[in-house]
Write a structure and sequence with these properties.
Layout (H helix, E strand, L loop, with lengths): L3 E5 L6 H9 L17 E6 L3 H10 L3 E3 L2 E6 L14 H9 L3 E7 L15 H32 L3 H18 L14 H6 L8 E6 L10 H13 L2 E5 L1 H8 L4 H10 L6 H12 L2 E7 L3 E8 L4 H8 L1 H5 L1 E7 L1 H6 L3 H6 L4 E3 L10 E6 L2
Parallel strand pairs: 1-4, 1-5, 3-9, 5-6, 6-7
Antiparallel strand pairs: 2-4, 8-9, 10-11, 10-12
Length: about 375
Amino acid sequence: MGFNCGIVGLPNVGKSTLFNALTMTAQAEAANYPFCTIEPNVGRVAVPDKRLDTLTALAKSTQTVPTFLEFVDIAGLVRGASKGEGLGNQFLGNIRAVDAIVHVLRCFEGGDVIHVENTVDPIRDADTVDTELMLSDLESLERRAEAARKKARGQDAEAKVQLAVMEPVLEALRKGLPARSVKFSEEQKPILWQLQLLTDKPVLYVCNVEESAAAEGNAQSKRVAERAKAEGAASVVISAAIEAELAHLTDPKDRAEFLEHLGLREPGLARVIRAGYGLLDLITFFTAGPKEARAWTMHRGAGAAAAAGAIHTDIQRGFIAAEVISYDDYVAAGGEQGAKDTGKMRLEGRDYVVKDGDVIYFRFNV
């Protein structure tokens, strides 16, 4: 089960630098000119989770396997992208394929990097990208809505149901509001998802600041935080320059000393990854034994059978029951056997809603 976040923004705001640091590779060429990233680059990034190390120690596992997020580096958008300016159509298509949007905004002045608009204003930059995404959604949705109206006039019941979703979104887009600003019932949400609208995707704003502001942010990043709060989005402050330096430090001690010198408790990328995880409303459950301790990803609210399917479809198909221990109980009891001895292990059925941190052993028969 793969979950991915598309890294977007105007040219030269630090997208590829962030991507390189995230994946600790040089897959995306970071260069001081627009469109240096022509094809989207994809990197799989381990989700930081100290609980997994604790489980490895308690279960005496020989291997530790984290869960992963995918990040897609998408080339910079410019004004007119919805009409094909720059490499607009290609890039908009790449954004359509991701689950969430990580919107990188330049929040630092000076430096040698040329801003495509010649001045630094992250709110203006956010508006530019949002406008292009909304224009693209508006154009595609108007065509689809017109076709649905014709069917609805012919008493097509399905078309009427689709229009009940399309019309409010069209109204919002015409007012300059994204599709995600419109609220729908649980029954209507699958219809909305099928439309694959760019502005329906959850957004994380990443404020790229100068090194001295990496800990607390600056005036520009505070403006972005206010915008994110008003939209119900999330925001994170990082210095892409610092993250790029950290990416080259492979010794944990060197990394810790570097962070301490800068007054930072953890890499900014850890916050980005966790925020992306939360943005997609994901949770982590674990399996732990002598062979390996492993983290698994699934959507919040999913049942035990779906969790079994995240491991293997055969386990889901032959699901019998799930032996569940909460992480806190597992640690307090000193491991699986201690949890069983103290009655902290529960036997759950296929519809049990898995909680973040559950340690699970699946009984199945195929």
